[in-house]
From TrEMBL, chain A:
Domain OmpA-like: 70-189
GO CC, one annotated term: cell outer membrane
Residues annotated as signal peptide: 1-23
Protein name: OmpA family protein
Automatic annotation (TrEMBL), chain B:
InterPro entries linked: GLG1
Signal peptide bounds: 1-25
PANTHER family: GOLGI APPARATUS PROTEIN 1, SELECTIN LIGAND RELATED
This protein's name: Cysteine rich repeat protein
Keyword annotations: Signal
């Protein structure tokens, strides 16, 4: 199931990166189906430790580190959200993707769960800058969801991982590495 | 072409929001709402609201403050989109309260929001106008 979930995430990310019609291929049903597969023995994620690990490994990658590697075991989905160049402003072309996420997070099947929003960049530019930008962009997505779409603020946590966990590790500058991961952290309190 | 599409999108939105007949949603999904916003206001956002975000009402405030410069299609779409999002949020927040009585009657022993909702969708004919309207406007049918 884990492997299946991860493959699904890969496929979707690739579909979304493939062309202009990409955003229309994602639906809230897909989001609900992928994110709703809460694993029975889901590992407890300590977001503070994730931040510590990434801060201590800028430019070195985090995929194999103890806390980051655990995330692969959780129900998740990767989507493409475009921003203005070197800015946290979400491009209007990506508003639909934000709206789809809002539709999914309000659905009765998902609305009691807590989600991690992880921002990723590709490896163009400086690693430190990429980390900071990815953090601010993940935050902008969270703010859009919690204000414009009233998703409860305690149901979302935003973090950035910069270029440290590429989808395509052999090609770190690939556009497919720029993505946002949504990860189900289990029931919100 | 883009502009024509934009106006067309806006017209669909206005029409769907204007239809208040029984069983017809007065709201559209959040995704559809912001898609129409991007279509009808994308150019104005690029021109007048660079660097501003969808969150914290930044885009909405910017478009309203620049109303004199913003296209009429965008201004009217913005109002409908804001209204639709607000109405859907209220409907989603109210479904299980508005339908609580019917759920107790019609869905005895059913536990969990997801299952209660599935039950209520099946008992639509008996759910009453308010409960049905809430489920429909929540986009959960």
């Amino acid at each position: 199931m884990t492997i299946h979930g991860f493959r699904y995430c890969l496929t979707l990310a690739l579909l979304l990166a493939a062309g202009t019609a990409g955003a229309q291929q994602l639906s809230d049903k897909q989001l609900i189906a992928s994110l709703g597969q809460a694993a029975q023995a889901a590992p407890i994620v300590d977001v503070g430790l994730l931040v510590q690990e990434v801060n201590a490994n800028v430019g070195k990658g985090v995929a194999t580190l103890p806390n980051w590697s655990q995330l692969a075991n959780l129900a998740q989905l990767a989507v493409e959200i475009d921003f203005e160049n070197d800015s946290t402003a979400i491009e209007p072309a990506s508003y639909r993707t934000i709206g789809l996420i809002a539709d999914a997070l309000h659905d009765p099947r998902l609305r009691h769960y807590k989600f991690l929003v992880v921002g990723h960049t590709n490896a163009t530019g400086k690693a430190e800058h990429n980390l900071e930008l990815s953090m601010k962009r993940a935050d902008a997505i969270m703010v859009a969801l919690t204000t414009t779409f009233s998703v409860p603020a305690n149901h979302l946590i935003a973090i950035g991982v910069g270029q440290e966990m590429p989808l395509d590790a052999t090609n770190p500058k690939a556009a497919a590495n720029r993505r946002v991961q949504l990860i189900n952290l289990g029931l919100a309190n | 072409m883009t502009n024509r599409l934009g106006i067309f999108g806006g017209a669909i939105l206005m029409a769907s929001l204007a239809l208040t007949g029984l069983g017809r949603a007065q709201t559209i999904s959040y995704a559809d709402a912001v898609t129409v916003l991007a279509k009808d206001c994308g150019a104005d956002i690029k021109k007048h609201c660079r660097g501003l975000n969808l969150g914290n009402n930044e885009i909405r405030n910017c478009l309203e403050q620049n109303q004199a410069k913003v296209s009429p299609a965008c201004t009217s779409t913005l109002a409908s989109v804001v209204a639709s999002i607000q109405m859907r949020l209220e409907a989603q927040a109210s479904v299980f309260k508005v339908c609580a009585g019917r759920a107790k009657q019609l869905c005895k022993g059913v536990v969990g929001e997801e299952h209660i909702l599935q039950c209520l969708i099946k008992t639509e004919r008996l759910d009453g106008e308010k409960c049905n309207a809430a489920i429909t406007n929540a986009g959960w049918r």
